């Protein structure tokens, strides 16, 4: 989730490593639809604190629309379109959770069984006890395993520049536990361990398992879980940047290429606003996991203060809307992009992307205000 301070630290460190620096004045605004004035105003406010460009793809069960401001590529006037590809970051966790829960439906995995039962010796030592951590706790970030940012402390890469999933997990677990199991703490490591669980249970590389179980059956032709060493981004693509803002000036630096296997089941998937919306709509409609298992996904723990509008289920964020009701989805922040998608039971949807991973002050509040405006439109 984007609210973790280490994400901002990651942006700052990577931003220092980039070579070329550009300053960009405000870009031309894409022509808006007249009946989305409040959402357009919120989009402009979001983009003013976000990347070179920002876009929202939203609508209800019968119609969808999109607005874009700024640019997908600096020094050009290129609006971000709903079919442009980008790295969705931690929205990947929803794909990973859905795959695990399909295996729960098939009775290959039990939610409340200890991870030691399926991955003996993996979560062990250095204060960890795999018999005390359940699959559910990994899915819900209540395992007590601390957060881990692979780009800050990666294990040695393979000769082709990719990263082995088990090596990522071993490196992450060199940190001692943050707490006893039962306390919420968002952690990429939980979902890396779940990636190993998927591989062990299916006998397939995790990118293949997620592709065959989730992406292909739903017809998500604009979505991919890249294989290790595949650094490509399909065209058309939103160009990703790091950035800082100083007064009226925006300073953008190209994201250095990295192998997405370093994020794997915690953040490697590539998609588009159109496709990632279709995924969450299918999940909410019971087309991905059984109704019983979906109900388990929607059992939440509060994130932050007791009156927070956010709660976390099993790979899903629950967001209470100011106009009443709730929306479900996930956010994502990965080098070059900040994104979130939310859907409601009655078919409303909103997906937002900006093409920068800011070094400081990610626009979290502005993101949720924009999503609220779109989902609560009259």
Write the layout of secondary structure elements.
Layout: H1 5-16, E1 22-24, H2 37-48, E2 53-59, E3 64-70, E4 86-87, H3 92-105, H4 115-118, E5 124-125, E6 128-129, H5 135-139, H6 165-172, H7 188-202, H8 206-215, E7 241-246, E8 249-254, H9 264-267, E9 270-271, H10 273-284, H11 291-297, E10 301-302, E11 310-312, E12 317-320, E13 326-334, E14 337-343, E15 349-354, E16 356-358, H12 364-375
Helix pairs in contact: 2-12, 3-7, 3-8, 6-7
Question: How would you characterize the overall build of this protein?
Answer:
The protein is built from twelve helices and 16 strands. The chain is an alpha+beta fold and 378 residues long. The chain has two domains: 26-87 and 227-242 and 256-375, Beta-lactamase, CATH 3.40.710.10; 93-212, Beta-lactamase (3-Layer(aba) Sandwich). Strand 5 (124-125) and strand 6 (128-129) form a beta hairpin. The longest helix is centred in the middle third of the chain and has 15 residues, at 188-202. The model is unreliable at 1-31 (pLDDT under 50).
